[in-house]
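Memo to structure team: turn this sequence into structure tokens by end of day. - J.P.
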Amino acid sequence: QVQLVEFGGGLVPAGGSLTLSCVVSGRTFSSYTMAWFRQASGTEREFVAAISWSEGSTYYVGSVKGRFTITRDNAKNTVYLHMSSLKPEDAAVYYCAADTKGSIEISVATIDYDYWGQGTQVTVSS
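Reply from structure team:
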């Protein structure tokens, strides 16, 4: 069983920074592709960023490129989302997700991720 727990959400002013963490249980974390999604009230869950297991390659949705950075620490079974220059439209519940199937390519689809965290709220004040 794989469990994901997110930390680091909170209230931040527009233009500010915040780092989310996701700690993952499981003996083979280094073989998981990890991703962050977000869901604002009344909207569908949206892909934000992902980092592969194979080469540590990353992929971002266009709206966060240059502002958000996803990293991972395999020794700590943790994936991070470093967010800067936050905008009010970044406010959402942020979810960590794991693709444990050893997929070679990064997917932006929720259906391709088989484990999810409970989510952490990020609020950006204008």
